[in-house]
Amino acid sequence: MGKYENLAKEIVRNVGGKENVSSLTHCITRLRFKLKEESLAKDDVIKNMDGVVTVMKSGGQYQVVIGNHVPEVYAEVMPLLGLEEGSADKADETPSGNLFNRAIDIISGIFQPILGIMAACGMVKGLNALFVALGWYPETCGGYLVLNAIGDGLFHFLPLFLGYTAAKKFRLKPMIGLVIGAIMCYPTVQAGTLSAGGQVLYTLFSGTMFESAVYTDFFGIPMIAMDYTGTVIPVIFVVYFASKCEKFFNKFIPDLVKFFFVPMLTLLVSIPAGFLLIGPLATFGSTLIAQGVMTVRNFSPMLAGALVGLTWQILVIFGLHWGFIPVYINNIMTNGYDNVMMPFFACTFATSAVVLAIFFKTKNRQLKEMALPNFISGIFGVTEPAIYGILLPLKKPFIISCIAGCIGGGFYGAFNFRKFMMGGMGIFEFPAMIEPDGGMGNLIVALAGVAITMVIAFAATMIFYKDDKKTAEETATGDRRAEGGSVEAEGESETVPETDGVGKKAETRAALLHQTQLYSPLRGRVLKLETLKDDAFASGVLGKGVGIWPEEGNVYAPADGVVSVLFPTLHAIGFSTDEGVELLIHIGLDTVQLNGEGFQARVAQGDRVKKGQLLVSFDMAFIEEKGYCLETPVLVTNSDNYLEVVETAAEHVAQGDVLLKVLK
């Protein structure tokens, strides 16, 4: 069994099963599902799983935030879905969601598969440049050439990789997308090659930013020369057009010759259209985007940088930062650097510094244990675990990190901070900030911005952050538990043993201001609520609790209280405890249709009873013989009034064992 096999199974079950999953990808910290029906996913159940940070819904995706070990969880989930890594969507071809959500989904689907290897190659390229700048070896040596090939190969032939991933996203055969990328990188059709070997026939759009030389034609149609190696946008649009061509030809080409005629016709139509129209227009579009964002930035570089720094973490929370990745890549490929999106670099270190300050400031043992690894993860560029696990729940630290990111971003904007090549994350991005001529001025700006941001974030957290009352209660409770002592709770005193059989994750998160114990009304096997066969109960909409598969036909009072409702069919009991907790005990599923057969009441509606008093008896064999399921939900129906309902971790309970703890 894999380390994360159980977690993977629980995630798949609670997103609605594999039948509800259209596709799955992952980024650095998240599983990104496309679900057919998001309403079938049980958000609260998934959020409370050990190994899950939180759940986000954005850009048409259902995102389960896992943390740094997401690749291992992804590898366990994929076989359960019957998918292979990188397989195309199983969904209908009609895209869902509004235009913005669809755009975010397309962008993330195309770029996510190559981000890891892109970061790796960028790090090699950056380190190679750093070592040359330090004089460790010259650019003319063989070692430099090989390392440069490792670092630059992906970026030079980027259209091949994007052609492949875009084809998967647009449901074109991936090999056709790969071929389109290769054709667009073919040496003899690049502007550099054509200009070196031929004369200009004429020039189009003279005197404009789109001025283009024509060196050749396609059977009399002028072909604008462009350099497509290293570009981003043209290949994506050509592949999209090719996907429509393939779909069209599939309708009319006989099955007997489809295997080779459809790809051939798709290429014969899409490639000329790409070189003659789509490619030049997309390249012009890339230039416009680059010029547009530079115009906005030039209005006030410091203000633009501050705005990026202030909002970047908010965009990360909702997964909307993907919409800006093409801008960043396009700027580097078009201008040779990016100085528009790079102010977000400050946010990485703002988050890390805030978490480090919390580590020193908090007295909460659990928070300390979380803070240090999240700090290390943050300086390496992965901040989602810190944001979701620490900053957002504590609120004030998140605000501090955004403000510090804003100040650092403004500094970067004012000093024209740039990144000259893609790749790397966190501290591994520094080599990519060395200027192409070996100058270190931009790298000094990078280091100064990190120092300013971290000092502000750290100092502000140390000054303004304090453990709130709830966190302090949690700390004191945890310390006394560790010593086997007692817990004081709003006028009550309760001795808590080291292990009480009740699920610990929710319990350690809640400050025990007041606790009500509810005892099992049945003897039997405990079932997770979400596994019950009745969706109304399993969804938790009727209340939080558990299910029990009974091993004897008696239901007892779970506490001192009143039988508030006894249905005429005797299949369900409403119960109000003396402390105000309202319970529903539903004997079997759909057993209302038995009209009371097989049930015998031992009390009447309105009776006051003591814990352990017999309420109803039922004939288990009779109920099963009639074809009904014996799963018996035990729910706290007013659970919204309470901080948490913590179920037992035991797999089997006897009548009278602690079943639920209600925290207020």
Automatic annotation (TrEMBL):
One of its GO terms (cellular component) is plasma membrane. This is PTS beta-glucoside transporter subunit IIABC. Residues 5-87 form the PTS EIIB type-1 domain. It comes from Eisenbergiella massiliensis. Signal peptide: none annotated. GO terms for biological process: phosphoenolpyruvate-dependent sugar phosphotransferase system; trehalose transport. The lineage of its organism: Bacteria, Bacillati, Bacillota, Clostridia, Lachnospirales. PROSITE patterns: PTS_EIIA_TYPE_1 (PS51093), PTS_EIIA_TYPE_1_HIS (PS00371), PTS_EIIB_TYPE_1 (PS51098), PTS_EIIB_TYPE_1_CYS (PS01035), PTS_EIIC_TYPE_1 (PS51103). One of its GO terms (molecular function) is protein-N(PI)-phosphohistidine-sugar phosphotransferase activity. Residues 534-638 form the PTS EIIA type-1 domain. It is a multi-pass membrane protein. It is found in: Cell membrane.
